[in-house]
Specification:
With 154 residues, the chain is an alpha/beta fold. The chain is built from 5 helices and 5 strands, in the order βαββαβαβαα. A 5-stranded parallel β-sheet has the order 2-1-3-4-5, sandwiched between helices. Strand 4 (76-83), helix 3 (94-104) and strand 5 (108-116) form a beta-alpha-beta unit. The radius of gyration is 15 Å and the shape is globular. The model has no long low-confidence stretch (mean pLDDT 92). It binds flavin mononucleotide. Flavin mononucleotide binds at residues 9-16, 52-56, 82-85, 117-119, 121. This is Flavodoxin-like domain-containing protein. InterPro entries: Flavodoxin/NO_synth (IPR008254), Flavodoxin_dom (IPR026816), Flavoprotein-like_sf (IPR029039), Protoporphyrinogen_IX_DH (IPR052200).
Length: 154
């Protein structure tokens, strides 16, 4: 199996930390969406798409990348994210949009991973240095690596 991963991390590099730990386990190429070239997906069986959550959504560059993707055959995908708040299905459901777009493009979406990340977005959070200051922490990174191992074992 061979892997590629696309990620966007603009706030505190939280998602980048998760992306790198997953990429290490999968021995995957890691790219920002702006670097995307269709030819890079040739021969890749599993592709990951990750982002910080910005206004209840993956970064627009990831959503644009998904629009640009050609129809895929026999490829699996996984998604990952970091966010200040836990994902609450229905009200905070940023994963569904990405899953739907990937499915439309012919990917089989096999799994998803998310964890909290340091968040200073709201001015009120900044008064006390933000929420989840030390995250993703070692435990989050361990969980991300376990998630990656399971992707290979499945
Ligand atoms: C512009 C902006 C909007 C955000 N919106 C949300 C949000 O809707 N829900 C949430 O849980 N966190 C939100 N956050 C917090 C980020 O999702 C969190 O800090 C994430 O870990 C950032 O990842 P990054 O450091 O990889 O960019 C927002 C942060 C920014 C900067």
């Amino acid at each position: 199996m061979s892997f590629a991963k696309y990620y966007k991390s603009v706030h505190h590099g939280n998602t980048e930390k998760v992306a790198k730990s997953i990429a290490e386990v999968l021995e995957a190429d890691l790219c920002e969406p702006e670097e995307f070239e269709v030819k890079e997906l040739r021969g890749k069986d599993l592709v990951g798409f990750g982002s910080g959550i910005y206004n209840i959504s993956f970064h627009e560059s990831i959503l644009e990348l998904l629009e640009e993707l050609p129809e895929m055959e026999s490829k699996k995908a996984f998604i990952f994210s970091t966010s200040g708040l836990p994902r609450i299905p229905i009200v905070h459901d940023y994963e569904s949009e990405v899953k739907e777009k990937l499915t439309e493009k012919g990917f089989e979406v096999v799994d998803s991973f998310s964890c909290r990340g340091h968040d200073t977005y709201f001015p009120v959070f900044r008064l006390f240095g933000g929420i989840h200051k030390d995250r993703p922490n070692e435990e989050d990174i361990d969980k991300a690596k376990k998630f990656a191992k399971q992707l290979i074992e499945d």
